TrEMBL record:
The lineage of its organism: Eukaryota, Viridiplantae, Streptophyta, Embryophyta, Tracheophyta. The keyword Flavoprotein does not apply. GO terms for cellular component: ribonucleoprotein complex; ribosome. CDD domains: Ribosomal_L7_L12. This is Large ribosomal subunit protein bL12 C-terminal domain-containing protein. PANTHER family: 39S RIBOSOMAL PROTEIN L12, OS07G0626100 PROTEIN. Keywords: Ribonucleoprotein, Ribosomal protein.
């Protein structure tokens, strides 16, 4: 049986036997450091370019960036399978109807101030002083979280007294 040294030339055998993992690691680390240096320079250049943009150009860039990343205006990126359930937001879907309403007093006639304060006290649990302060700091939300029927009844009563009221 022939020895291993007779099958390989002496020079190749020396390279194989003197193979050092440290030299490979050092070459790999230097390549990684060079690549990270290139990335750092690239990021510094991009950051500098972004800082040089005007306000309008930054806005345009932000819109373009969101578009390229697949982001819509209101939320996260649209990725993955889209469900066909009711949450998919198809063209047939209607916006959810509002169930809780707020009554907002915008203005009132000075002559009807006392009547309006009494009416505000009747549908809130406020005392005379608190109701007066609430009415005087117009525009103010008088009551929150009412159903549509309750809110419209109160709005009609206040409008009859001379107040300008809005449902929100």
């Amino acid at each position: 049986m022939a020895s291993i040294s007779s099958k390989f030339p002496a020079k190749s055998l020396t390279k194989i036997l003197t193979f050092s993992p440290k030299s490979v690691i050092s070459r790999t680390l230097s390549a990684i450091a060079a690549a990270s240096e290139i990335r750092t320079q690239k990021l510094d250049r991009i950051a500098g370019d972004l800082l040089d943009l005007t306000k309008l150009e930054r806005h345009d860039y932000a819109v373009l960036f969101r578009h390229k990343m697949g982001l819509n205006r209101y939320g996260p990126a649209l990725s993955g399978p889209i469900s066909s359930g009711p949450a998919a937001g198809g063209s047939d879907s209607k916006p959810a109807e509002k169930t809780a309403f707020d009554i907002k007093l915008e203005k009132y006639d000075a002559a009807a101030k006392i009547k309006i304060i009494k009416e505000v006290r009747s549908f809130t649990d406020l005392g005379l002083k608190e109701a007066k302060e609430l009415v005087e700091k117009v525009p103010a939300v008088l009551k929150k979280g009412l159903t549509k029927e309750e809110a419209t009844a109160i709005v009609e009563q206040l409008k009859e007294l001379g107040a300008t009221v809005v449902l929100e």
